[in-house]
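Per your request, structure below.
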């Protein structure tokens, strides 16, 4: 099989529409019905819901846990309600690849947890790659996507979407069973 990958010259929200369009095209080609999207305040989730309206049975918008409320990164109840009204499931959870209990120990005592090593490895591709893998783990752990069929993951750098992958999911405790099967789009430069 030969497929193209979209490489964006710049990262960030400017690529959202192109990323969603590429994701939709590839999901149609593969018959993917489960879409997982990172969405801090619901905007990207709503764009995905609109684009995938007639294709996907299951769109899961993953937001960050209340531990990041001070930074302004948590989704409000009104934002969650808008997503649910658009037919999107909302998952609010702690990061699967860090920022949990292990991270508190590394902050205090140094070193790196296995989760942080995996996180940093995925960052070598781009921030969106790390987030795509992470939200798939989180959605699988919550029972919101199957682990026995491919799903589409959409995420980005800071805001919007600039990364899309096709993934065979796994639960966090079975991380080594997760397979990144295709890269659909990603930023070319990390800085």
């Amino acid at each position: 099989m030969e497929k193209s990958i979209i490489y964006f010259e710049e990262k960030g929200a400017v690529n959202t529409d192109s990323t969603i369009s590429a994701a939709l095209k590839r999901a149609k080609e593969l018959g993917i019905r489960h879409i997982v999207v990172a969405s801090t305040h619901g905007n990207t989730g709503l764009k995905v819901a609109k684009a995938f309206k007639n294709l996907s049975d299951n769109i899961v918008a993953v937001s960050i846990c209340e531990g990041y409320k001070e930074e302004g990164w948590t989704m409000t109840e009104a934002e969650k309600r808008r997503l649910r009204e658009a037919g999107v499931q909302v998952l609010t959870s702690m990061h699967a690849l860090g920022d949990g209990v292990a991270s508190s120990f590394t902050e205090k005592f140094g070193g790196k947890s296995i989760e942080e090593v995996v996180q940093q490895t995925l960052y070598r591709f781009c921030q969106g790659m790390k987030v795509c893998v992470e939200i798939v783990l989180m959605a699988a752990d919550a029972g919101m996507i199957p682990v026995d069929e491919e799903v589409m993951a959409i995420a980005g750098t800071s805001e919007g979407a600039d990364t899309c992958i096709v993934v065979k999911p796994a639960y966090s405790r079975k991380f080594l069973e997760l397979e990144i099967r295709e890269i659909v789009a990603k930023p070319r430069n990390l800085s």
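The chain has one domain: 6-97+127-187.

Regards,
D.
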